[in-house]
Amino acid sequence: MFGRREPSDVQALVAQPLANCIHAAGIRVSCRVYTTDEPMLMTPQTPVRMAQVDEVAVITVDNPPVNTISAAVRSGVNEALDAIAKLSGVRAVLLRCEGRTFFSGADINEFSGPPKEAEYRALFARVEALSVPVIAAMHGTVLGGGLEFSLACHYRVAAPGTKFGLPEVTLGVIPGAGGTQRLPRLIGIEKALELIISAKPVETHQALALGFLDEVIDGPLEQGALSYARLLLARGAGPRRTAARTAQALGESILAELRDQAREQYPNRTAALTAIEAVTAGARLPFNDGLLLEERLANDTKLTPECRGSVHVFFAERETRRLLGLPEATPRTIKTAGIVGAGTMGGAIAMCFANAGIPVTVLDAAQDALDRGLGVIDSNYESMVRRGRLAPVDKPKRMALIRASLDYAALASTDVVIEAVFEDLGLKKRIFGVLDQALKPGAILASNTSTLDVTELARATSRPADVIGMHFFSPANVMPLLEVVRTEFTSAETIRTVMDLARTLRKTPVLARVCYGFVGNRMMEGYLREAERMVLEGATPRQVDAVLEQWGMAMGILAVVDMAGVDVGVNVHKANADRYPPDPSYYQADFALVEAGRLGQKNGRGYYRYEPGDRARHDDSEALAIVQARARQLDIVPRAHSEQEILERCLYPLLNEGFRILEEGIVQRASDIDVVWTSGYGFPRYRGGPMFYAETLGLQTLYDGMLKYRDRFGPMHWQPAPLLKQLLTTGKNIAAWEAAR
Ligand code: NAD
Predict the structure, then answer these.
(1) Closest CA to 102 of 59, 57, 50, 134
(2) Nearest to residue 354, comparing CAs of 332, 369, 336, 375?
(3) Domain 39-300 maps to which CATH number in 3.40.50.620, 3.90.226.10, 1.10.10.570, 3.40.50.1970?
(4) Pick from 652, 633, 659: which is nearest to 713 by CA?
């Protein structure tokens, strides 16, 4: 599912929604009460305060950065309700949050504790049961538990631009704080399920139309919400309890359609189907029984592999920034940047800086290359404007941050320069020598190389401690992954600066050490080798890709080759021929296609055929004939491949290489490998990434699988990683091995 979305969408969907897996840490803080006549000073730790403004009690939550409904907040709101009960003259309650958003969900730090549904249920029921109208005044991004909280209030108003959503199913869980029971009672089963299954946030006008938002408040929200409350009181409006409503049953045919939609949108997963069960069955039951059903189903979903995998990746992405054993150092400030090479990568990396508000100078060897590069950037921004992803007024602002130059003197005062010229060690070394002369002391010299030894580039300068790899992924302005490659010389200061810079550029950095292909491309090697080899053995590209996509890869690997350019891989393999094992069939399908002029999507012909201006893949007998002719030359006898064989031969070498990378200390931790593959290579998040998946599959199964293919094809490509064997011999899992390291 994630692969079929824009990576930026995936980030947005996955960032908050853990929200609703409601577990607890149990921190307790007090709620301070003050009135307009006698305000009380708050202690900085107190996330909830209450004030009486005339007849309205205002509960304000201030739990930065995103007002998660932590244990402290729950306890504070309960205390505020206790205090309100003792006040006289309160005729309405307003619930609001300080900062950039209303409640964005539950507290992710509570994730590993015991389930807390009952606590949420009790708090929300208490709010809903109040005898005076309760109004939720919302702004920002109201997701998961945040939206569920508002459903327990009697009235809901919001600032313009507020977004609302229940994205839980993308994490393999269902709304577990009453959402599956209250929402259908409020807006009907069908609309509720559409919101839950699509998992996409909706805008205020949609929320109004759907029927869970009463009013949009222009101007200052708190004042507007207070006026709204007074209006309600003037009209004599009382509490309006969602729980007291009933939901109309849905016809079986509509339900069947919704189930089909859930299966299509979330293949290999069950959370969306479980949500349908909770919503439909719950709506037939009395409200409290429905809540108990929801709780049971929500707890079941937390045990599924899809939930465990998604949650693992969620935390793994936060973990990458924790640097193990690195000396403390103050990161340098990055205010300006330079890029050498205005090609595919250079242009897109320049956009990353401009998007972050950092002025960037792009340098190339020739004016036409610069003009072309700037033209591509301009049209990329134009397309973002067309698709509504960038406000028209912002395009000139971003473009104004990007300067072009042919002269290295223009980079003299930049804080960081990223080299993105052709993948040629000699050329890159020369450029690093020139940068060494041109840049101010303390500037960071980075390379976007995919395969070359960054240590060699460091040696080409007089300041190897400032040299580092910054391996962006294409399209660099979209893909979240950044492999940060340290050499033996790179200083802690440089590493920390670049890890911080990644955050500024909204990238997910994974720190790696130098090796051929670093983490992602190194693991890709065996995966791609087997996929291509099976085409030589007679499988069709569609057959191979279909198995991989059905399993969950965002795109089949042979379609990826077409997209990246078949020639790109061939050039890398030619340049590195001496690194590979003496296998005459090694990448020969690619070589044969390129020799026949099939370069992939860029000329409409690769493993598949493409129509001009269209990326849809068409089977092409010509491609098959070319590969089969090469197979005959190599004496490869065609045969049939089962789906199981395709999957195993593609995945096992990929997983196995991960164990080598881990053992060699190329990455800090196994979960970093998972992040590389889920955020850079379309590995399904719900399978947790390759290392997590290896354990789901079973290390013994992986090991036995490697031996099975070793027996069949020989040891050249099928040696189990030593660490895999060691884990099996010692009975340890990856976490235990890491802890003992
Ligand atoms: P590209 O061919 O699109 O662009 C290279 C640019 O470098 C061109 O504009 C060229 O004019 C310029 N250039 C060449 N020699 C130069 C010189 N002496 N001085 C200044 N500029 C010079 O290549 P690309 O795909 O953008 O790749 C650039 C780098 O990024 C390579 O190291 C590649 O391995 C790496 N990379 C590429 C991808 C990808 O998917 N394309 C992904 C990750 C990393």
Answers:
(1) 59
(2) 336
(3) 3.90.226.10
(4) 652
Torsion sign (Cα): 580, 586, 587, 593: positive
pLDDT digits (tens, 9 = 90+) for 702-735: 999 999 999 999 999 999 999 999 999 999 999 9
Please write the tens of the pLDDT for every residue from 233-247.
999 999 999 999 999
How far from chain centre, in Å, is Cα 150?
27
Domain boundaries, the chain: 1-35, 39-300, 337-516, 521-665+698-740
Asked whether 344 lines ligand 1 (CB < 6 A), one says yes
Name the one residue in this structure whose structure tokens are 């990353």: 352
117 is catalytic: no
Name the class of domain 337-516.
Answer: alpha beta
686 burial via Cβ count (<10 Å: 0-12, 13-18, 19+): buried
Integer Cα distance of 739 and 741 in angstroms: 6
d(CA 562, CA 100): 43
Q: Which residues pair with 484 in a beta bridge?
A: 470, 511
The token pair at 152 is 């327990």
Structure tokens at 358: 């950092």
pLDDT of 613 reads 86
| CA 364 / ligand 1 centre spacing (Å) | 10
**148 assigned to active site:** yes
Q: Positive or negative, the Cα torsion across 673, 551, 299, 314?
A: positive
- Ligand 1 neighbourhood includes 450 CB (under 6 angstroms): yes
CA distance linking residue 443 with residue 437, whole number of Å? 11
Fold of 521-665+698-740: N-(1-d-carboxylethyl)-l-norvaline Dehydrogenase; domain 2 (1.10.1040)
Whether residue 343 has its Cβ less than 6 Å from ligand 1: yes
The CA distance from 548 to 545, in Å, is 5
